[in-house]
Amino acid sequence: MQIDEMLMKALTTYDNNRERSQQKQIGVSQIGGCRKQVWLQIQNAPKTNETLKLPALMGTAIHKMIEEALVKDNAANWGDYWLEEEVEYDGLKGHIDLYIPSVGAVIDWKTTKMKNLSYFPSKQQRTQVQLYAYLLSKNGHEPKTVTLVGIPRDGDERNIKMHTEEYNEAIALEGLGWLREVQAMETAPEPERYAAQFCKFYCSYYGENCGGKGKEKAEITITDNETVGAIEKYLVISEDIKELEAERDGIKAYLEGINGVTPNGNKVQWSEVAGRSSVDEEAVKAVMGEVPKKQGEPTMRLTIK
After folding, report:
1. pLDDT tens digit string along 61-95?
2. What is the number of domains present in the chain?
Protein backbone atom coordinates (compact mmCIF):
# COMPACT_ATOMS: atom_id res chain seq x y z
CA MET A 1 0.00 0.00 0.00
CA GLN A 2 1.21 3.50 -0.85
CA ILE A 3 1.83 5.90 2.05
CA ASP A 4 -0.79 8.37 0.79
CA GLU A 5 -3.37 5.58 0.55
CA MET A 6 -2.50 4.39 4.04
CA LEU A 7 -2.87 7.93 5.39
CA MET A 8 -6.29 8.53 3.84
CA LYS A 9 -7.54 5.09 4.88
CA ALA A 10 -6.57 5.74 8.50
CA LEU A 11 -8.07 9.24 8.52
CA THR A 12 -11.28 8.09 6.85
CA THR A 13 -11.73 5.19 9.27
CA TYR A 14 -11.15 7.52 12.22
CA ASP A 15 -13.70 10.01 10.91
CA ASN A 16 -16.30 7.34 10.07
CA ASN A 17 -16.23 6.13 13.67
CA ARG A 18 -17.03 9.58 15.06
CA GLU A 19 -20.55 9.98 16.46
CA ARG A 20 -21.29 12.95 14.22
CA SER A 21 -20.26 11.00 11.11
CA GLN A 22 -22.74 8.24 12.01
CA GLN A 23 -25.66 10.65 12.44
CA LYS A 24 -28.52 9.63 10.13
CA GLN A 25 -30.98 12.47 10.60
CA ILE A 26 -30.69 15.81 8.84
CA GLY A 27 -28.30 18.14 10.64
CA VAL A 28 -28.34 21.91 10.98
CA SER A 29 -25.28 22.25 8.71
CA GLN A 30 -27.22 20.80 5.75
CA ILE A 31 -30.04 23.33 5.84
CA GLY A 32 -29.88 25.85 3.02
CA GLY A 33 -27.70 23.64 0.84
CA CYS A 34 -28.86 21.47 -2.04
CA ARG A 35 -32.51 20.48 -1.61
CA LYS A 36 -32.12 17.33 -3.68
CA GLN A 37 -29.19 16.12 -1.60
CA VAL A 38 -31.20 16.55 1.59
CA TRP A 39 -34.31 15.00 0.00
CA LEU A 40 -32.34 11.92 -1.05
CA GLN A 41 -31.02 11.51 2.49
CA ILE A 42 -34.56 11.78 3.88
CA GLN A 43 -35.60 9.03 1.44
CA ASN A 44 -32.71 6.81 2.62
CA ALA A 45 -31.39 6.68 -0.93
CA PRO A 46 -28.25 4.56 -1.39
CA LYS A 47 -24.96 6.42 -1.50
CA THR A 48 -23.39 5.98 -4.92
CA ASN A 49 -20.34 8.21 -4.91
CA GLU A 50 -17.01 8.14 -3.08
CA THR A 51 -16.43 11.76 -2.14
CA LEU A 52 -13.26 13.71 -1.43
CA LYS A 53 -12.71 13.86 2.32
CA LEU A 54 -9.51 15.77 3.07
CA PRO A 55 -11.02 19.28 3.42
CA ALA A 56 -13.60 17.99 5.91
CA LEU A 57 -10.96 15.98 7.76
CA MET A 58 -8.78 19.08 8.08
CA GLY A 59 -11.78 20.96 9.42
CA THR A 60 -12.41 18.23 11.99
CA ALA A 61 -8.76 18.33 13.09
CA ILE A 62 -8.83 22.10 13.54
CA HIS A 63 -12.09 21.88 15.53
CA LYS A 64 -10.55 19.23 17.79
CA MET A 65 -7.44 21.31 18.41
CA ILE A 66 -9.53 24.39 19.22
CA GLU A 67 -11.63 22.34 21.65
CA GLU A 68 -8.57 20.98 23.47
CA ALA A 69 -6.91 24.41 23.57
CA LEU A 70 -10.00 26.11 25.00
CA VAL A 71 -10.43 23.43 27.67
CA LYS A 72 -6.82 23.87 28.81
CA ASP A 73 -6.86 27.66 28.65
CA ASN A 74 -10.17 28.05 30.49
CA ALA A 75 -9.86 25.30 33.11
CA ALA A 76 -10.36 27.80 35.96
CA ASN A 77 -13.76 29.00 34.75
CA TRP A 78 -14.76 25.94 32.75
CA GLY A 79 -18.36 26.05 33.93
CA ASP A 80 -19.00 29.03 31.68
CA TYR A 81 -17.90 27.33 28.47
CA TRP A 82 -19.74 24.61 26.59
CA LEU A 83 -17.90 22.84 23.80
CA GLU A 84 -19.34 20.52 21.15
CA GLU A 85 -22.70 20.62 22.89
CA GLU A 86 -25.42 18.52 21.23
CA VAL A 87 -28.89 20.08 21.20
CA GLU A 88 -32.10 18.79 19.64
CA TYR A 89 -35.63 20.06 19.18
CA ASP A 90 -38.54 18.93 17.02
CA GLY A 91 -36.46 16.37 15.14
CA LEU A 92 -33.58 18.73 14.36
CA LYS A 93 -30.17 18.05 15.90
CA GLY A 94 -27.12 20.28 16.02
CA HIS A 95 -23.64 20.25 17.55
CA ILE A 96 -22.60 23.67 18.85
CA ASP A 97 -18.88 24.41 18.69
CA LEU A 98 -18.86 26.86 21.60
CA TYR A 99 -21.52 28.40 23.83
CA ILE A 100 -20.83 30.89 26.63
CA PRO A 101 -23.97 30.99 28.82
CA SER A 102 -23.01 34.06 30.89
CA VAL A 103 -23.16 36.32 27.83
CA GLY A 104 -25.44 34.19 25.64
CA ALA A 105 -22.81 33.86 22.90
CA VAL A 106 -23.02 31.09 20.29
CA ILE A 107 -19.78 30.59 18.32
CA ASP A 108 -19.26 28.43 15.24
CA TRP A 109 -15.83 27.75 13.70
CA LYS A 110 -15.75 27.56 9.89
CA THR A 111 -12.68 26.21 8.09
CA THR A 112 -12.56 27.43 4.52
CA LYS A 113 -10.31 28.69 1.73
CA MET A 114 -8.87 32.17 1.43
CA LYS A 115 -10.89 32.88 -1.72
CA ASN A 116 -14.12 32.07 0.12
CA LEU A 117 -13.46 34.61 2.86
CA SER A 118 -14.31 37.41 0.44
CA TYR A 119 -17.99 36.51 0.78
CA PHE A 120 -17.92 35.09 4.31
CA PRO A 121 -20.32 34.49 5.91
CA SER A 122 -22.78 33.08 3.41
CA LYS A 123 -26.53 33.11 3.97
CA GLN A 124 -26.40 29.38 4.67
CA GLN A 125 -23.71 29.84 7.33
CA ARG A 126 -25.67 32.64 9.01
CA THR A 127 -28.82 30.51 9.00
CA GLN A 128 -26.89 27.60 10.49
CA VAL A 129 -25.52 29.50 13.48
CA GLN A 130 -28.91 31.15 14.07
CA LEU A 131 -30.46 27.67 14.13
CA TYR A 132 -27.95 26.60 16.79
CA ALA A 133 -29.10 29.54 18.90
CA TYR A 134 -32.73 28.62 18.20
CA LEU A 135 -32.16 25.04 19.41
CA LEU A 136 -30.52 26.39 22.56
CA SER A 137 -33.48 28.70 23.20
CA LYS A 138 -35.88 25.77 22.84
CA ASN A 139 -33.84 23.89 25.44
CA GLY A 140 -34.21 26.57 28.08
CA HIS A 141 -31.21 28.81 27.32
CA GLU A 142 -31.04 32.50 26.41
CA PRO A 143 -28.77 33.08 23.40
CA LYS A 144 -28.13 36.74 22.64
CA THR A 145 -25.51 36.80 19.89
CA VAL A 146 -24.18 34.44 17.23
CA THR A 147 -20.64 34.53 15.87
CA LEU A 148 -19.07 32.88 12.84
CA VAL A 149 -15.27 32.61 12.74
CA GLY A 150 -13.76 31.89 9.32
CA ILE A 151 -10.41 30.07 9.53
CA PRO A 152 -8.65 29.69 6.16
CA ARG A 153 -6.83 26.39 5.72
CA ASP A 154 -4.51 28.05 3.21
CA GLY A 155 -3.95 31.29 5.16
CA ASP A 156 -2.54 32.40 8.51
CA GLU A 157 -3.82 34.06 11.69
CA ARG A 158 -3.94 37.46 9.99
CA ASN A 159 -6.62 36.14 7.67
CA ILE A 160 -9.07 34.88 10.30
CA LYS A 161 -12.41 36.61 9.77
CA MET A 162 -15.17 37.06 12.35
CA HIS A 163 -18.83 37.99 11.97
CA THR A 164 -21.17 38.66 14.91
CA GLU A 165 -24.86 39.51 14.88
CA GLU A 166 -27.75 39.42 17.32
CA TYR A 167 -29.78 36.25 17.69
CA ASN A 168 -32.71 36.48 15.28
CA GLU A 169 -35.35 33.79 15.57
CA ALA A 170 -36.88 34.81 12.23
CA ILE A 171 -33.72 33.73 10.37
CA ALA A 172 -33.75 30.40 12.20
CA LEU A 173 -37.43 29.84 11.39
CA GLU A 174 -36.76 30.58 7.73
CA GLY A 175 -34.14 27.84 7.74
CA LEU A 176 -36.49 25.49 9.55
CA GLY A 177 -39.16 26.27 6.95
CA TRP A 178 -36.68 25.32 4.22
CA LEU A 179 -36.26 21.89 5.83
CA ARG A 180 -39.99 21.34 6.34
CA GLU A 181 -40.59 22.21 2.69
CA VAL A 182 -38.08 19.59 1.55
CA GLN A 183 -39.49 17.00 3.96
CA ALA A 184 -42.97 17.54 2.48
CA MET A 185 -41.87 17.01 -1.13
CA GLU A 186 -43.26 13.84 -2.70
CA THR A 187 -40.96 13.99 -5.72
CA ALA A 188 -37.29 14.89 -5.92
CA PRO A 189 -36.49 18.59 -6.37
CA GLU A 190 -34.03 19.74 -9.00
CA PRO A 191 -30.33 19.63 -8.06
CA GLU A 192 -28.84 22.99 -7.11
CA ARG A 193 -25.12 22.31 -7.41
CA TYR A 194 -23.05 21.88 -10.55
CA ALA A 195 -21.68 18.39 -11.08
CA ALA A 196 -18.41 19.67 -12.51
CA GLN A 197 -17.46 21.75 -9.49
CA PHE A 198 -19.19 20.13 -6.54
CA CYS A 199 -21.37 17.04 -6.90
CA LYS A 200 -18.87 14.57 -8.27
CA PHE A 201 -16.36 15.52 -5.56
CA TYR A 202 -18.49 16.16 -2.48
CA CYS A 203 -21.97 14.59 -2.86
CA SER A 204 -22.49 10.96 -1.83
CA TYR A 205 -25.61 10.73 -4.02
CA TYR A 206 -23.97 11.78 -7.28
CA GLY A 207 -24.30 9.18 -10.03
CA GLU A 208 -27.37 6.98 -10.38
CA ASN A 209 -29.44 9.10 -7.99
CA CYS A 210 -28.49 12.51 -9.34
CA GLY A 211 -26.35 13.92 -12.11
CA GLY A 212 -26.11 17.40 -10.64
CA LYS A 213 -27.14 20.66 -12.20
CA GLY A 214 -26.27 21.09 -15.87
CA LYS A 215 -26.30 17.38 -16.70
CA GLU A 216 -27.78 17.95 -20.17
CA LYS A 217 -25.42 16.74 -22.86
CA ALA A 218 -24.45 18.71 -25.92
CA GLU A 219 -24.47 17.10 -29.35
CA ILE A 220 -20.68 16.80 -29.29
CA THR A 221 -18.89 15.32 -26.30
CA ILE A 222 -15.85 17.36 -25.27
CA THR A 223 -13.03 15.06 -24.16
CA ASP A 224 -9.91 17.27 -24.27
CA ASN A 225 -8.69 17.53 -20.68
CA GLU A 226 -7.49 21.14 -20.95
CA THR A 227 -10.80 22.23 -22.46
CA VAL A 228 -12.81 20.36 -19.83
CA GLY A 229 -10.67 21.97 -17.13
CA ALA A 230 -11.25 25.42 -18.61
CA ILE A 231 -15.01 24.83 -18.68
CA GLU A 232 -15.08 23.71 -15.06
CA LYS A 233 -12.98 26.69 -13.99
CA TYR A 234 -15.34 29.02 -15.88
CA LEU A 235 -18.30 27.64 -13.90
CA VAL A 236 -16.48 28.04 -10.59
CA ILE A 237 -15.50 31.63 -11.40
CA SER A 238 -19.04 32.45 -12.54
CA GLU A 239 -20.47 31.24 -9.24
CA ASP A 240 -17.80 33.19 -7.32
CA ILE A 241 -18.71 36.35 -9.24
CA LYS A 242 -22.39 35.96 -8.33
CA GLU A 243 -21.51 35.60 -4.66
CA LEU A 244 -19.13 38.56 -4.75
CA GLU A 245 -21.63 40.80 -6.55
CA ALA A 246 -24.27 39.93 -3.98
CA GLU A 247 -21.82 40.70 -1.16
CA ARG A 248 -20.82 44.00 -2.81
CA ASP A 249 -24.47 45.04 -3.13
CA GLY A 250 -25.01 44.23 0.54
CA ILE A 251 -22.01 46.32 1.58
CA LYS A 252 -23.19 49.18 -0.64
CA ALA A 253 -26.58 49.14 1.08
CA TYR A 254 -24.87 49.14 4.49
CA LEU A 255 -22.76 52.18 3.53
CA GLU A 256 -25.74 54.21 2.33
CA GLY A 257 -25.46 57.78 3.62
CA ILE A 258 -21.95 57.32 5.03
CA ASN A 259 -19.30 59.85 3.92
CA GLY A 260 -15.78 60.31 5.21
CA VAL A 261 -12.22 58.99 5.20
CA THR A 262 -10.96 55.85 6.94
CA PRO A 263 -7.70 55.73 8.94
CA ASN A 264 -6.21 53.96 5.91
CA GLY A 265 -7.07 56.86 3.64
CA ASN A 266 -10.02 55.25 1.86
CA LYS A 267 -12.44 58.01 0.88
CA VAL A 268 -16.16 57.28 1.02
CA GLN A 269 -18.45 59.73 -0.76
CA TRP A 270 -21.99 59.59 -2.08
CA SER A 271 -22.82 61.94 -4.95
CA GLU A 272 -25.73 62.37 -7.29
CA VAL A 273 -25.18 61.14 -10.83
CA ALA A 274 -27.35 62.37 -13.68
CA GLY A 275 -29.55 59.74 -15.24
CA ARG A 276 -28.58 58.41 -18.65
CA SER A 277 -30.25 60.30 -21.49
CA SER A 278 -32.13 58.32 -24.09
CA VAL A 279 -34.47 58.90 -27.00
CA ASP A 280 -38.10 59.40 -26.00
CA GLU A 281 -39.56 56.83 -28.35
CA GLU A 282 -43.16 57.79 -27.60
CA ALA A 283 -42.49 61.45 -28.46
CA VAL A 284 -40.67 60.54 -31.68
CA LYS A 285 -43.45 58.18 -32.67
CA ALA A 286 -46.05 60.90 -32.05
CA VAL A 287 -44.23 63.25 -34.45
CA MET A 288 -42.93 60.85 -37.10
CA GLY A 289 -45.40 58.01 -36.87
CA GLU A 290 -42.63 55.49 -36.29
CA VAL A 291 -39.28 55.18 -34.59
CA PRO A 292 -36.46 54.34 -37.01
CA LYS A 293 -34.17 51.64 -35.65
CA LYS A 294 -30.85 50.28 -36.80
CA GLN A 295 -29.91 46.66 -36.28
CA GLY A 296 -26.48 46.29 -34.73
CA GLU A 297 -23.86 43.72 -35.65
CA PRO A 298 -24.54 40.29 -34.16
CA THR A 299 -22.33 39.06 -31.31
CA MET A 300 -21.63 35.60 -29.90
CA ARG A 301 -22.91 34.64 -26.47
CA LEU A 302 -21.30 31.85 -24.46
CA THR A 303 -23.57 29.64 -22.36
CA ILE A 304 -22.09 27.05 -20.01
CA LYS A 305 -24.33 25.29 -17.52
Report:
1. 888 888 888 777 765 665 678 888 899 998 899 99
2. 1
Tell if the pTM clears 0.85, that is, is over it: no
Helices 123-138 and 169-184 pack at an angle, to 10 degrees, of 100
Q: Which domain holds residue 69?
A: 3-184
Give the pLDDT confidence of 251-262 residue by residue, as tens digits: 988 888 899 999
Quick one: which of 227, 178, 256, 204 has its CA closest to 37?
A: 204
- Which residue(s) pair with 194 in the sheet? 213
Tell me the β-bridge partners of 108: 148
Is 251 among the domain residues? no
Identify the pLDDT of residue 217. Answer: 38
Entry field: residues in the chain = 305
Backbone angles phi, psi at 58, to 5 degrees: -65, -40
* φ/ψ (deg, to 5) at 149: -120, 115
